[in-house]
Amino acid sequence: MGRTDMHRQRLNVIRMRMLGAEVMPVDSGSGTLKDATSEAIRDWVTNVEHTHYIIGSAVGPAPYPEIVAHFQSIIGIESRAQMLDKVGVLPGTVVACVGGGSNAIGIFRGFLDDPEVVLVGVEAGGEGLGGLHGASLAKGSPGVLHGSFSYLLQDPDGQVAEAHSVSAGLDYPGVGPEHSHLRDLGRVTYSNATDEAALSAFLECSRREGLIPALETSHALAYVRDTAASLAGPVLVCLSGRGDKDVDQAGAALGIDASA
């Protein structure tokens, strides 16, 4: 795990260590998801006789993007069934955040064969698309990262550029190959939300709903809040996780001081 992300998601690290996991810090690059993934793959291929590699995101070499998408698709299968059971109709719009894209591809797979359902993925707009961000599908170009061909942030020489997001889970300079394919097909629309918008949605959801969302999810919530008037309803938002792990990061960014 990148050292930067170990700091940003301190509570996750504590939980993993409590459960007996060895968490190895990665100090190369920006110390985030890209660097942790590179180090994990490097260790795997060096020690392949007694080491296996797994990943929770829909990125990396085949067959990992398909494995992750297949198991994550239970999100879409159950969401589709629950919409029909509880609401009586399919959603008009399904919205999910996209970093590597595991939870998004999971929920999208439940609705890909329903052309009347609009699918929207929301990337990390960071400081804005003119500054540091993690919007690979909006501002990236085709290239190879971690063994797959997809859209990624890179310079004119093909060197991978640094990504940025207030959310550790979206702080990745590439995206899963299936998302790249769906973008090119036009089946999924990809937008973005800035750090500022995501933090605002994080706080608003916490106070209005009593539900602290993950900072990743907050990007999708920000998009829905800010574009609600134009979205076909009913709108289904994929909540990719709880924000317990993000309270330190969000509190510091929002100026919430526990000691005052």
What features would you describe in this structure?
With 260 residues, this protein is of the alpha/beta class. Helix content is 42%, strand content 13%. The chain has ten helices and six strands; from the N terminus they run H-H-H-H-E-H-E-H-E-E-H-E-H-H-E-H. The strands form two sheets. A four-stranded parallel sheet has the order 5-2-1-6, with helices on both faces. The protein has a two-stranded antiparallel ribbon with strand order 3-4. Helix 5 (102-108) links the parallel strand 1 (93-97) and strand 2 (118-126). Helix 4 packs across helix 5 (102-108) and helix 8 crosses helix 9 (215-227). It is globular and about 50 Å long. It starts with a helix and ends in a 6-residue tail after the last helix.
Which secondary structure elements does this structure contain, and how are they paired or packed?
Blueprint: H1 3-8, H2 10-18, H3 33-46, H4 64-86, E1 93-97, H5 102-108, E2 118-126, H6 136-139, E3 141-145, E4 148-152, H7 177-185, E5 188-194, H8 195-209, H9 215-227, E6 235-237, H10 247-254
Parallel strand pairs: 1-2, 1-6, 2-5
Antiparallel strand pairs: 3-4
Helix pairs in contact: 4-5, 8-9
